[in-house]
Amino acid sequence: AKRDAKFPYEPRYVSKLWDKLTDSAGYPAIKPPWGTLNAIDLNTGDYRWRIPLGEYPELGKPTGTESYGGPLVTAGGLVFIAGTRDATLKAFDKNTGKLLWEYPLPEAGFATPITYEINGTQYIVLACGGGRGLKPGGDYIAFALPQKTSKTGWILMVAFLAVAIALRTKKHLKGFSFTVLIFAAVSLAMYYPQYFTTVGDFKLSRLILPLLQLIMFGMGTELSLKEFKQVVKTPKKILIGVVCHYTIMPCISFAIASLFHFPKEIAAGIILVGCCPSGLASNVMSYLARANLALSVSVTTVSTLLAPLLTPLLMHYLAGSFVEVHFWAMAWDITQIVILPIAAGLAFHYVVKGKVKWLDKAMPLVSMGGITLIIVVITAAGRDSLLDVGLLLIAASLLQNVAGYTLGYGAAKLLKLPERDARTISLEVGMQNGGLASGIALKLGKLATVGLAPAIFGPLMNITGSSLATWWHRKPPPA
After folding, report:
1. Is the pTM of the predicted complex or chain greater than 0.90?
2. 205-259 pLDDT, tens digit each
3. Judging by beta carbons within 10 Å of its beta carbon (0-12, 13-18, 19+), is residue 93 exposed, middle or buried?
4. What are residue 144's DSSP bridge partners?
5. How far, in Å, CA of 436 to CA of 173, rounded?
6. Whole-angstrom distance, CA of residue 167 vs CA of residue 70
């Protein structure tokens, strides 16, 4: 063929022989080992361990054999490899190189194993094609890795449940019981995530958006036109609250996300929390703290109604370097999650509320159950990332939350607002709608990363908010 001929073409020189240097018995004519598996420390370049890989059984000692196909290393510290002429799949300890398990294959597996997970069970799959002078084959073999059975999750759950029941008996501590119940549920999600990700073929994450809409509907049922009249009566205080909320918290969140050097998507989750409207819990905490409840409800309402505009705008400018933010898509998502359900709830308030007593009592319970399920599903989905950055993320969320309370209170005092109003602004700035942040994370398709910060911030702010409200409750504001 001509050299300038296009591919495919017949090369000028082709080796059709593959001669190996062997002894009279057909074994490699060099000193064994004839094949090794090596672990190298990439920080130092030193061998951590080096062992013969494969054997000729008739020789009675581990000589190693030539191999084709690489290893697979699991997060649990196992190294799976086949690829040798003795047609076995082996598992070694990643840290020591000790052989832990081996399995005879129908034909040699000259390939690299793959892994996947279904319903919480991890599988290892290998193609056993044989060949290379051995018996050919066409089998695929899958192995299910044994699951660790631990009772720790159940023990933690029972312990938290007992604490929650005990708190219900104390008047000043009852507010903590719901948060402790969330910890009980999260304990199960951390230890047994497979039960909180899917049920059969149904992904539990699909429930998050409907549950959020139901919670926002519940918020709408508690609203009436008097909240909107309050905006007209005291616009200055409400404006201060909303401006503080949408300036202080986003700036704090951006600073913390930059300071801690989290992976980009987790950092974006911290900023997302800070860019969301006030949480419904702030109204309860304002009541307990002897703050201005009417102002709290008004700031929560206005900040929530402004969320479709301000949350995507702030995310675009503050988190655009961490994740891709589509302004109009996020605005529409928030409208679907927040505005439409609140409008439906407001209509429900005037048409049905009070006429169906059992439904009025059920809505708060449904909301609490929905919040718990959302946090549990997010925890299960992001368990691995949470184990990597969990303590640091908790520290960052605590700093974010406390800084919000402190700067919110300081800003209100600087603007010469009375004590009751300063307490309100503090709680409105520090307490965010973590549920909405979770829904946005789901819409972004990043529930297991962006959704982690909201899942941590929610229970944490309930603890700090309850503690702050209880402390303020014991210190009545000046008349």
Report:
1. no
2. 888 888 888 877 877 777 666 666 666 677 888 899 999 999 999 999 999 999 9
3. middle
4. 123
5. 27
6. 56
